[in-house]
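Review form for a predicted model. The reviewer records the input and the model, then writes brief findings.
Reviewer: anonymous (R2)
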Amino acid sequence: MNLYSDNINKVTPQSFSQGLQQRVDRLQKDANRLFSLGNIRKHCQMALMRFLANQQPSPYANWGMQLSHDREFRFAQSLTQSYTSTKEEIIQWARGCMSDYLLQEVMEERSKRIEEFSRMKIASRWYQMKDDDKTWRVFAQNIPFGVAGREEEVKEFFELLDRICILTDILTGHAAEYGLEVDYTKMPKATGKNNAKPKQQKKLAKPRETMTFKRKGRLTEGHLTLLFSKLVKDGWIEGEECNFKALFSSNRDEDCELTWLGRYGKGTLVELFRQMINEDLITLANGFTLSAVLEGHFKDKNDQWMTGLDKGNKPNERAKPIIRECLKLMKADPQQLFNGDWQDGEDFASEYDPYDHQDMQLHRR
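Model under review:
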């Protein structure tokens, strides 16, 4: 399939059967979730690794042949191999568009490709896809691997899926990863002929911001270990220590998720990180706001992404002394803290950090 072809099948809502129209509507409505496959690719890669690790060494072993008899692993293999296979073509197409119009064109192109996708028989159950490690295995049973005469259909399915996923990445805040400059403040409203009542259209959900903070040289991973322990012990946050450290990796990290327990309100969360910025312990990348970064990595107790952190809520007065303690903690020598000989009031950067060699790449997308 050529992105630039003038012979692309044009499909109008009137030409759809009722069942096909329902499939199109389901996919269009939930496209950002259904075509963001980062977690599913990770599940597939782990499945392939486990498969190969469990093979018995044999000079006659043909892993490719064994793999071909299992649709789950054929799916995992195909999804992995087709990843970004259409990337260069899409980038070239996008570079031919003025940046002010790019998001609108990407949105229209994705809508057209989803209509194409919906017409494929083997894609009819894609609307059921979830991020877990079970759903993709069930869906894999729909793919006719090894069926004579359907090889090209399977190939086109994975190529079209990859194309839609890349277009979705661009629409959900990841254009920079493809070398494209996009102003997301000019995100167009979703439009389309499939909607009978345009006035009732919902606004396009604000893309989750996955950029993290950059820690300055004086803030080491030893400090982060101590800060994480304190915030967990005091009942401020829940989560994995590796994700807390990834929050300061200066990279995009969609896997970095933490829970704000809300003991002192939203304003306290913002104030803690604002003070860290004021004390020159961490910085924000150009073009990013404090509230957007925090909303992209913190959920509330109901497992919903936090919102409204830019409303200017004041921090709880009872939390301010704890914030001051956190700031002192982050200026102290962590080795002395571990040894128990740090005195309140000491303020100097660490010269030794036993955690600096941890591999933060494990936490990247």
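Findings: The first helix runs from residue 18 to 29.
Further findings: The CA atoms of residues 218 and 290 lie 20 Å apart.
Recommendation: see findings above.
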